[in-house]
Amino acid sequence: AHDPFITQRNRLGDTLLRGLTRLTAFRDRPVQIVSASPGGMGGMRATNQLKAMLSGIGCLVFPDAFSVSGASSAFNEDDTLVDEKLQQRANAVAQRFDAFTKRNLS
What we know:
Distance between the termini: 8 Å
Order of helices and strands: HEEHEEH
Mean pLDDT: 81
Low-confidence stretches: none
Helix content: 40-55%
Number of helices: 3
Radius of gyration: 14 Å
Number of strands: 4
Strand content: 5-15%
Shape: globular
Largest sheet: 2 strands, parallel
């Protein structure tokens, strides 16, 4: 079994590109892309680029990316989302990713 991992970057840019050689260790592993941004797009442009890069190095990219726009005011003190419907959607996406992971690692 493999433990999930989470990586966070403030900007996609060259930081990710420099790290791609290390990311090849995740070839054939499930990956879920989650983004949060203070802007209205929630990081979707970066998410699309990241999906292409991770697919290109052989990661099994979960098709349901999850993005949070207006991130500077979207979270409670306990790191849950202020918007209950968005929190429910986040929970549902996480459950689907868990099932995706189990199917692809068995």
